[in-house]
C-alpha cells in the first residue's frame, strides 16, 4: 500500500473506532485524554505543523442589538441595518422567557454530562425517531485549485472531527412528536417548551425580516407566505473543555443553509463571525468574537434568505473556537427553514425586489437542489455560487 493510502486507512479506522465508542468527544475527556487525537487536527494546523495557528486578533466589535420592546417603526429599520450589514444580531426583549432558555440550556448540558452508558444508546449519525446524538464529522471545503473531482470521496479519506458533540432533534414536519423517551426528563420537558416558544419568536422574526426588505416594498407576511417558515430543527451543541484548545475547531467556518437561525448560548463564548469589508466579501475579513449577552438571543441570516433577498441581506461565515481547557460550552441553534421542500417548489429572489438597477442575482432553486449543491461544494459561502447569475 502507498503511504498516503495507509494513512487514509488508518484515519478511517480511528474514525470508526471513535464512533464505536458512542461516547463522543466528552468520552475522550472523561477518559483523561491529555492530548488531542489526530482526527481532530485540521490539515495544516497540527497534522503536518507543530506550531498552532495564529489566534484571531482581539477586536472591539460588537454585533448590533435589536430591542423588540421598541415600537415597530424603530425595530424594522434596526433589523434592516443589521441584516444588510453584518447578518448577525442580538435580540433582546424577544418574548422567550429567560427561564425557558435557561432550562433548555441546562437540559442540554445535563444530556451531554450524564454517564456515557446513559447517553450512548442515543448515539447515531442518522436521526432515529427525530433524534441523533453524535460528533458530526466536518465536511471540509473543497480544494481551491479544483484538483479534486470528487470532493466527498476526498473528505471521507481525510476525516476531520470538531471538538463538539451534538444532540440534533427534529420536531417536524407532521403531527408526530420526536421520540424523546431516551433523553433525561429535563430534556423531555425543556426542549419542546423552548421549541414552542421559539416558533412564536420565529414568526415575529420572519415578519420583521420580511418587512425590513426592499425599503418598505415587501409586506410583513411575505416570507411566511412564500416559504412557510418553520423552526423544527434544533441542534443542541456541547463543546467539552479541551486540553489543547488552540489546536482544535469547535465548528469549522460555514454559512447556515437556513432562512435564518436563532442561537442561544451560555456565558462561555467561542462563536466568531467573519467581518466582510466590502460587498461580496473577499473571504479575507477578520474573525471577531460574538461575546455572549445575558438574556439575548443571536439571530443570523442564512443562505436561503440571502438568495431570496437578492443579496440585500448577508449570510455571514461563522465558526466556533474552543476558549477553555476548563469549561464546557453549550449552545442551541434552531434553524428556520422553508417548509416547502419538493423539487417543484422553487424559490428565488422575490420579484418585488427586482429593478433594472438591481436585477436578479440568483436563479430559482428548490430546497433539494440547494442541499445537493451544499453537499458537493462544502459548507462555506461558495456553496451558493452555482445559483448565481453572472453580472454583465
Ligand atoms: O455553537 C455555536 O455558537 C454556533 C453553532 C452553529 O453555527 C450552527 O449550529 O450552525
Ligand atoms: Fe452555523
From TrEMBL:
PROSITE patterns registered for this protein in UniProt: FE2OG_OXY
Chain segments carrying region Disordered: 135-155
Species of origin: Oryza rufipogon
Domain Fe2OG dioxygenase: 228-338
Family: Belongs to the iron/ascorbate-dependent oxidoreductase family.
UniProt keyword Calcium present: no
InterPro entries the UniProt entry points to: DIOX_N, IPNS-like_FE2OG_OXY, IPNS-like_sf, Oxoglu/Fe-dep_dioxygenase_dom
Protein name (database record): Fe2OG dioxygenase domain-containing protein
PANTHER family, per database record: OS01G0536400 PROTEIN, OXIDOREDUCTASE, 2OG-FE II OXYGENASE FAMILY PROTEIN
Annotated GO MF terms: dioxygenase activity; metal ion binding
Keywords tagged on the record: Iron, Metal-binding, Oxidoreductase
Amino acid at each position: 500500500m502507498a503511504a498516503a493510502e495507509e494513512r487514509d486507512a488508518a484515519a478511517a479506522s480511528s474514525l470508526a473506532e471513535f464512533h464505536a465508542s458512542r461516547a463522543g468527544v466528552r468520552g475522550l475527556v472523561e477518559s483523561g485524554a491529555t492530548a488531542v487525537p489526530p482526527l481532530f487536527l485540521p490539515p495544516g494546523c497540527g497534522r503536518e505543523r507543530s506550531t498552532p495557528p495564529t489566534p484571531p486578533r482581539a477586536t472591539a466589535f460588537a454585533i448590533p442589538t435589536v430591542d423588540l420592546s421598541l415600537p415597530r417603526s424603530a425595530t424594522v429599520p434596526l433589523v434592516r441595518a443589521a441584516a444588510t450589514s453584518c447578518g448577525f444580531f442580538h435580540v433582546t426583549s424577544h418574548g422567550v422567557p429567560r427561564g425557558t432558555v435557561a432550562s433548555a440550556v441546562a437540559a442540554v448540558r445535563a444530556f451531554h454530562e450524564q454517564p456515557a452508558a446513559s447517553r450512548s444508546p442515543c448515539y447515531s449519525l442518522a436521526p432515529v425517531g427525530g433524534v441523533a446524538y453524535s460528533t458530526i464529522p466536518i465536511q471540509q471545503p473543497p480544494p481551491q485549485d479544483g484538483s479534486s473531482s470528487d470532493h466527498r470521496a476526498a473528505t471521507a479519506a481525510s476525516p476531520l472531527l470538531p471538538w463538539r458533540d451534538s444532540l440534533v432533534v427534529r420536531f417536524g414536519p407532521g403531527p408526530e412528536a420526536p421520540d424523546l423517551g431516551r433523553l433525561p426528563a429535563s430534556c423531555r420537558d425543556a426542549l419542546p417548551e423552548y421549541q414552542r416558544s421559539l416558533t412564536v419568536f420565529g414568526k415575529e422574526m420572519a415578519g420583521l425580516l420580511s418587512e425590513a426588505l426592499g425599503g418598505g416594498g415587501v409586506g410583513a407576511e411575505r416570507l411566511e407566505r412564500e416559504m412557510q417558515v418553520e423552526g423544527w430543527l434544533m441542534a443542541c451543541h456541547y463543546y467539552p473543555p479541551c486540553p489543547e484548545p488552540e489546536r482544535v475547531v469547535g465548528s469549522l467556518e460555514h454559512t447556515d443553509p437556513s432562512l435564518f437561525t436563532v442561537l442561544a448560548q451560555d456565558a462561555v463564548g467561542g462563536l466568531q463571525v467573519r467581518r466582510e469589508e466590502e460587498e461580496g466579501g473577499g473571504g479575507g475579513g477578520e474573525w471577531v468574537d460574538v461575546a455572549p449577552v445575558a438574556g439575548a438571543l443571536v439571530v443570523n441570516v442564512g443562505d436561503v434568505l440571502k438568495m431570496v433577498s437578492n443579496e440585500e441581506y448577508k449570510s455571514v461565515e461563522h465558526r466556533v473556537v474552543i476558549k477553555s481547557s476548563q469549561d464546557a460550552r453549550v449552545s442551541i441553534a434552531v434553524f428556520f427553514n422553508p417548509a416547502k421542500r419538493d423539487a417543484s417548489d422553487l424559490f428565488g429572489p422575490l420579484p418585488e425586489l427586482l429593478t433594472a438597477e438591481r436585477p436578479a442575482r440568483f436563479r430559482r432553486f428548490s430546497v433539494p437542489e440547494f442541499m445537493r449543491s451544499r453537499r458537493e461544494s462544502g459548507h462555506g459561502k461558495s456553496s451558493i455560487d452555482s445559483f448565481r447569475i453572472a453580472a454583465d
